Prior knowledge:
The complex is a heterodimer of chains A (282) and B (274).
Chain A: E1 3-12, E2 20-30, E3 35-40, H1 46-53, E4 61-66, E5 69-70, H2 78-84, E6 85-88, H3 101-111, H4 116-129, H5 146-158, E7 164-168, H6 176-193, E8 196-201, H7 204-208, E9 213-218, E10 221-226, H8 228-232, H9 235-240, H10 247-257, H11 269-281
Parallel strand pairs in A: 3-8, 3-9, 6-7, 7-8
Antiparallel strand pairs in A: 1-2, 1-4, 4-5, 9-10
Helix pairs in contact in A: 3-4, 3-5, 4-5
Chain B: H1 16-19, H2 22-37, H3 42-59, H4 63-70, H5 74-87, E1 93-97, E2 100-103, H6 104-130, H7 133-143, H8 154-184, H9 194-200, H10 202-225, H11 244-266
Amino acid sequence: MSIALEHVNYVYSPGTAYERHALKDVSLEIEQGQFVGIIGHTGSGKSTLIQHLNGLMKATSGNIYYEGQSIYEEGYDMKKLRTQVGLVFQYPEYQLFEVDVLTDVCFGPKNQGLSQEECEKNAREALELVGFPEKYYRQSPFELSGGQKRRVAIAGILAMHPKVLVLDEPTAGLDPKGRDEILDQIDHLHKETGMTVILVSHSMEDIANYVDRIVVMNRGEKMLDGTPREVFAHYKELEKVGLAAPQVTYVMHDLKERGFDVAADATTIEEAADDIMRSFHD
Amino acid sequence: MIRDITIGQYYPAESPIHRLDPRVKIVCTLLFLISLFIQNSLLGYVIATLFLGCVIHFSKVPVKYIAKGLKPIVILLLFTVVMNLLLTRGGETLVHFGIITITENGLRTSVFMAIRLIYLVAGSSIMTFTTTPNGLTDGLEKLLHPLNRLNVPVHEVAMIMSIALRFIPILLEETDKIMKAQMARGADFESGNIIQRAKAMIPILVPLFISAFRRANDLAMAMEARCYHGGEGRTKMKPLRYKGRDKMAYIFTLIYIVVIFMVGRFVPFKLWVF
């Protein structure tokens, strides 16, 4: 088991007018190599949750284990944890600061204490993994397009060789093409390296095609947890909390209600199309 | 961590102080600050404490919250106290040890200076805690309106102030976010000598500056898109008007000022019990 959360609670600014219970008794286990989607509405606690995974935020109560060891134990090496659980923040391009792309990606490995050559080697590998064109390696990161900046920022985390990659809304603010490219790249990465990937999003459509498991957060609580098929079966409950299942789910349910012989639990468009074709041929 | 800085922030609550006209709060705060410096007797400080205590009590802002706002001035406070303690001469000598001489006057001045500084910050933070940045600017603009005749761009100054105030929490949050993002990349802000630490700030400062400029640019664009063109001919949606409670507050503060002035002037005996 890679990461385990036990009854984690987090309260913002306790004892003031701004007090907010952001996480309520969240327990979660994530296996090594899993591709997990965390979904929730704005303010559902998903960003708070993932910042606990690498110790940037400390739970008010509860415990978190990484590879079986409690990260709140005295003398636990947080810096090492942060390189193992790589966290890519929302709009990560706003953290770029170096004079050129390659140097910026080297920042992580340099903090790990690697030599200049090793840093550069890791950085080049990471940039290649995210599909960043080599001719721009020496360009200032501020001159790149939004999508390319984001790739550089993700590479900045990958260059540390994390075992777990956590991404907070990696597609926010990108156009549909950029979104699909980034998501495909992450999927490719997951298959290639076998690392655990945790993807945070508020859009079911985005992640349904990629993840093996979805965790739905609502008002700081874990509401649903299961395979996309299992989660989308609860599409009525999802609607109540302001989320929606992918459109194919609705189409398939409608078809079924009108007497077509289709399985209502298709999660991707391809799957649904095959099923509809099958029902016509029968 | 960095979110703990509370100075200059608004504390939302339903209280009689929150409902007061911002002009009242600005003028009364100013009067209170002046009152701290026109007297120097124990009785005067007792009265000032009572006044401040009353206001804090009615404002419903927790004392803990105000105390947190004092944190940034701790060093200044210590410096003032030590300097006054060691350098003021006069009165009976209390301690004499090598080059250190502490006199009665020195002790007295340093204690009063400390109280003054604390009340100064606490008094003005009560104003910012109970008034929204918009309220503050509106109040200030209205108060300074007569200066318009002297060609002082009052509205613009007020607008700049309100934007600056509004940006404090935004930039703090931004700093927090960038810091966390760099920590996630293994950055270390806590260890190392002073030069290493200063160097460690670069990954925070560069993105922070860029984001500040980006935000300023966005804001300017948004304002122009809504046809903002300065103060000329601009009307208010909620014009400020004095109500009964505002007059009460003025009267209350005036009584306080008169009492404190009288105490400072006419109470002949030095109420300094040591």
